[in-house]
Amino acid sequence: MPPAKKEARPNGRAGRTRVPAYVKNKRGVNTWKQVGEWLEWREIEDIECITPDQAGVARGKMMPSSKFTSNTSLALPSAPFMMTISGDYPEDGNGFAYPEDDGDLKLMPDLSTLSVVPWEEDPTAQVICDLVHQDGRSVEFTPRNVLKRVIAAYNRRGLKPVVAPEIEFYLVRKNPDPDYPLVPPVGRSGRPIGGGAGYSIAGVNEFDELIDDIYHFSESQGLEIDTLIHEEGAGQLEINLRHGDPIELADQVFMFKRTIREAALKHDTYATFMAKPIQGQPGSAMHIHQSVIDKKTGKNIFTGEDGEETEAFRHFIGGMQKHVPNALVMFAPYVNSYRRLTQAASAPVNTKWGYDNRTTAFRVPRSDPSARRVENRIPSSDANPYLALAASLACGLIGIIKQIEPDAPVGTTVNEDEIDLPRGLLEAVDLFETDEELREMLGSSFASTYAAIKRAEFETFMEVISPWEREYLLLNV
């Protein structure tokens, strides 16, 4: 009998044929035995067990792959999920109390998220984890669990939400000194990138090699990019993702942010998801397209049998109009976020809705009736994707449950009217804390923890003296 044919492994070494598909491409990996085979095929040495904190930063542990597959218990303290973006901790109050013992939480790997880490030199994999208490209860205040709680509220009503995020970001020159403003990078032409290049193919081509790495890194991780464009800002790009399950899409945004930053660093550039990184340039958004499916029929509940809009569609918008201002702190989580939400800017600062009207907060894009959806244009790209999706879907579901009627749609430019949203972080936190329906949907311990973190971040911001103060107050007051 002739010897079995050989085929190259990812590292170039030969292996036997008829390797299961899930070993090659991760599809169907859902048992620890399959995980072990997947890791062995790639000769993975280390595993990053990660989970998003309140800011969307990856927290977790790294370990040898042999230890990962030996049923080792993984634990993290609760402290990282009560930490501000600057590494401080909020004071107790308004329902928030920092745990005295800071007991360990258990990391539970979601095996379906297992993927390689393509930018690491040594063979490394990563897996996203959920957090549970020692007795197995879900940790209510962690972002991935907050989104799962909202999805469960849909499931109890026989509904399945579908989302498609769009993420904008800037490429900027490296800036190790935070006292200096960010500036656009130099592209392959050798000249600094200018603004006004919306949808410019030449603008995208300025970063050909960097974008090639983004695509390569993404493909290696199983991340699917729908489209990539150059936005209006200087060095500002946008990636659109395909529609799908909210948890899967939040995971993808979480991973995309890591991927894009790593690809940029490889080219001696920063990628930033700040809402307003450069003065005088447009802000960066994370628009969220949303629809809802009836789990029994598989049909979009926003469209009736006659192809027309349904009451559920109108009530979803009504819920968004009423509750999104109260949830704004989850869409605009930092003081910088409110620099993007200014009058007559490209970002909507109203609570109006309309058909294919980009000046409204809630846009209904042109589509076939079966694809009818609502685009939430308020979130900025600095938002934690799990929390932004959770808040947006929660507002819409409250509208469906409470049968909230929306205002009439508008067909005119409405972004030059008065601002309907909170003007700053503290005002947004105040509104968030008073919305009992939103608190019930998201979880009380999360709401208290998140509000406390945001208040603490504002106090840290107030300790910093800005260039504006030195420019206009130093010698004039």
From TrEMBL:
GO terms for biological process: glutamine biosynthetic process; polyamine catabolic process. InterPro entries: Gln_synt_N (IPR008147), Gln_synt_N_sf (IPR036651), Gln_synth/guanido_kin_cat_dom (IPR014746), Gln_synth_cat_dom (IPR008146), Gln_synth_gly_rich_site (IPR027303). Residues 143-477 form the GS catalytic domain. Keywords: ATP-binding, Ligase, Magnesium, Nitrogen fixation, Nucleotide-binding. Its cofactor is Mg(2+). The keyword Nucleotide-binding applies. GO terms for molecular function: ATP binding; glutamine synthetase activity. Residues 40-136 form the GS beta-grasp domain. Belongs to the glutamine synthetase family. Catalyzes the ATP-dependent biosynthesis of glutamine from glutamate and ammonia. This is Glutamine synthetase. It comes from Pseudaminobacter soli (ex Zhang et al. 2022).
